[in-house]
Write a structure and sequence with these properties.
608 residues; alpha+beta; 31% strand; ten-stranded antiparallel sheet; 20% helix
């Protein structure tokens, strides 16, 4: 068990003096050399001078790399279609079993209260683990507790498959390297586009007035290195706001995007939340003038894998860095500005409504960040997007799509694809036969030669709107034969027609065309006095293909991926049964792929 006591000096923002429960003296170099296992978490009390900053107000501006100082105290998804199989509701795609599995690991449970605050279980249950992302931790190095623990929280359990590399920006005496040298380290890092900086300075963000002042107080090479990483590698810098018990402003380095325009959209300032008090941690600086790019994350009582507990914005920041890694894995085509904007928009509001100077955009929320944002859009092609609305289609199209069990991708306001069943976004709309009968609508134009007939007729057999829009009044050319004969006092009649159709889709439709569409209709009936009986098969497709081009996701470079499908449209026919007497006719239509109908019609002609 390690017992740590916090103290403050003029130049050190915070440090720990640690002894073991048995009274080990870890402040003694000789004791540490003899008993290294008892002092594995010793940090030291030497002054950490921030090289290159110079004297400010008669005192050195310094960092604290101790456990309470400076910026803090001490499944594989394919990149092609990283999509969410769900509707647009909170956790709608995640069931209780998946959530329990995601939150039942030891890495999660040791900080379950903090991870529940950011609703981490949902992004884990959706399979996002930061795979393929690399985070550069600019810190005191993994041979120190601070550097080791910052690196730990940058990965497990938010992004356990992310690569986390530590870069030592302090010497062995815990003194900061010169800013120019830190800039050179940033320039040398080629495999990372996420940088975690859990350190700060004693000046406040409001003390900075210009880029020139920043370059003078730090180093032009340092500022230029940040600028190059943002511009050339589309990097994101995640910065700890500081632990100065200042509930008005963040540390001065958090203000860099206000004066270095290249960092806008590439910088996230992080303040610490105390989940026990339900408020900003007492030690944490507030967002202040950085509120527009500031976010809140848990930063108190965070346990490492060894049970050592940490407090500080130093450890809130890597939680956000890990969240960025998750989004880069899930949506590799998103730019840095899109990712930062997404994190800010999906943050859970805290404090005063809207963006405020205490919590900025609010609490990091991994559930909201990994589900759709805004009204869904559907890409018809690379240049045309339209709002996703339920498409109304005929029974033929509806049955064909449902039988094929197709998936397609709709896109949120950030252009992220989220896959859903195509059949759940269509509604079958039948043309009511009763009104056609009542109004004596005749859609047929043709000629008869003896028992032989031919011509064409308008058809609503293939009808769709929205993203499945077809041309209205498609024509069917037909040939057929009809016969009538007497069987005693009973008149028997029959008719059969075979049709040939060439239906067309509209320009902005996922239906790209039809081929080989053939239809058939048939009728058999009998008349006896005033009675009439009949059974009929309305126009039915007996062969034909529907060609669909469906969006299914995005490639890593952002290009929309489409799949082409040829759907067999042959279906079982609807059957109409009718009985009539005089002017009255009752009919029942048994429609296997639409709405059944029953209707009674009375038709009488009046002559004046």
């Amino acid at each position: 068990m390690i017992i740590c006591k916090k103290f403050f000096t003029v130049s050190i923002l915070g440090a720990f003096i640690c002894t073991s429960a048995s009274g080990a003296n870890c402040t003694s170099a000789a004791y540490r050399a003899k008993y290294p296992e008892k002092c594995s978490f010793f940090i030291g009390t030497g002054t950490a001078v921030f090289g290159g900053l110079g004297a400010v107000g008669g005192a050195l501006a310094a960092f604290a790399f101790a456990s309470s100082g400076g910026g803090g105290s001490s499944s594989d998804n394919g990149a092609t279609i990283p999509t969410l199989q769900s509707s647009y509701m909170v956790g709608g795609d995640v069931d209780s079993i998946q959530l329990a599995a995601a939150t039942g690991t030891s890495d999660y449970t040791r900080n379950s209260n903090q991870y529940d605050e950011i609703r981490l279980g949902y992004s884990l249950a959706r399979g996002f683990t930061g795979r393929g992302s690399t985070i550069a931790v600019l810190d005191a190095g993994e041979d120190t507790a601070h550097g080791k623990h910052v690196a730990y929280f940058a990965s497990t359990p938010i992004a356990p498959n992310a690569v986390v590399n530590s870069y030592k920006i302090a010497d062995d005496d815990m003194k900061f390297l010169p800013y120019a040298q830190i800039g050179a380290i940033i320039d040398s890092i080629s495999d990372a586009d996420i940088f975690n900086a859990s350190w700060s300075v004693s000046m406040r963000a409001t003390d900075i007035k210009s880029r020139h002042q920043l370059e003078s107080l730090t180093d032009k090479g340092f500022i230029d290195a940040l600028s190059r990483a943002a511009h050339e590698r589309d990097a994101i810098f995640v910065w700890a706001a500081g632990n100065d018990y200042d509930h008005r402003q963040s540390s001065a380095l958090s203000a860099m995007p206000l004066f270095v325009s290249e960092l806008r959209g590439h910088f996230i300032n992080v303040v610490a939340w105390d989940n026990q008090t339900g408020a900003l941690a007492d030690f944490s600086n507030a967002c202040g003038i950085t509120k527009d790019y500031c976010i809140t994350a848990p930063g108190t009582n965070l346990a490492t894998e060894y049970g050592f507990r940490e407090n500080g914005t130093s450890f809130a920041a890597p939680l956000v860095s890990a969240a960025v890694a998750v989004l880069k894995e899930a949506f590799p085509y998103m730019t840095a500005s899109e990712i930062t904007s997404l994190l800010f928009e999906t943050a859970r509001d805290l404090g005063a409504p809207g963006v405020d100077e205490i919590y900025g955009h609010g609490m990091l929320d991994m559930e909201r960040a990994t589900r759709p944002v805004g009204a869904p859009l559907v890409p018809i092609n690379d240049n045309v997007m339209q709002p996703l609305r339920t498409a109304r289609v005929s029974g033929v199209i509806g049955h064909s799509i449902k039988s094929a069990d197709l998936k397609f991708a709709s896109f949120d306001k950030y252009g992220r694809p989220f896959v859903a069943d195509l059949s759940s976004n269509i509604k079958i709309k039948n043309q009511p036969r009763a009104f056609e009968r009542l109004r004596a609508i005749n859609k047929t134009q043709g000629a008869t030669i003896g028992n032989f007939e031919f011509g064409f007729k308008h058809s609503d057999l293939i009808l769709g709107d929205g993203f499945l829009q077809t041309q209205k009044n498609n024509l069917i050319s037909f040939v057929g034969a009809h016969n009538e004969f007497m069987l005693g006092d009973v008149q028997i009649f029959q008719r059969i027609q075979v049709g040939f159709a060439a239906p067309q889709s509209e320009q902005n439709s996922m239906i790209t065309g039809f081929s080989g569409v053939n239809t058939m209709s048939a009728e058999l009936g009998a008349k006896y006095g005033n009675w009439k009986f009949g059974i009929a098969i309305p126009d039915t497709i007996i062969s034909g293909k529907m060609n669909l081009r469906l969006p299914v996701g995005r490639a890593d470079n952002g290009a929309i991926i489409h799949h082409n499908y040829n759907i067999d449209m042959a279906i079982a026919p609807a059957v109409e049964y009718s009985v009539g007497y005089g002017a009255f006719t009752a009919s029942f239509i048994d429609n296997p792929y639409g709405t059944d109908e029953f209707f009674v019609i009375a038709k009488k002609s009046l002559i004046f």
